[in-house]
Amino acid sequence: MRTIRVEASTATILLTEAPEPKVRDRQTGEVAKDATTGEALMKVGVVYIDEGQSSLIHVAVPESGVSEGLTLGAPVSLPGLIARPWESVFNGRQRHGIAFRAAALTAGAVPASVGADFRFYDLRHAGHTLATQVGATLKDTMVRAGQSSERASLIYQHSDRKRQHEIAAALDARVAEEREKGAARPSGADLVRDV
After folding, report:
1. How many of the other CB atoms lie within 10 Å of CB of 81?
2. I need a labelling partner for 37 at 20 to 30 A (CA). Which of 107, 136, 151, 163 fits?
């Protein structure tokens, strides 16, 4: 399997999901283990920000490599970060993706480029907004953030001008599509006139 080293020295990496055991088999609850050492693996969620682009990714880390006292939203370091492209067939469908692995997960320093007015709590707002923009439902965002009320989840979701333009364009396309379909069918008034 091909392994790609991820150069993360210029990236900002923020913890979005606390470390938890990486499950190998959901039916049995079996925890994934390192193929060489046999050590249990942990799964952690991070946002990886570099060159103006950000990605939410999950990274597998050996249990012994996870530092104590990590805080959600705080910067972290992932020494030895690698990416492995993968493919599989599940229920007759071809699937593919990228698996990330690191040697450790440690607390990182706040990058100077973030700015003095930035609050890590702002990531909660950004995360909710981005999740809904890629298709997450209200319930999806509630589960991701551990919220029990719709009202609490809605507080963190925002809309920007770009998103409003995307929605308007999608509505225009839908209306045009329906008009084309309607032109091929007789209207209700046409049907009544034929009687």
Report:
1. 23
2. 107
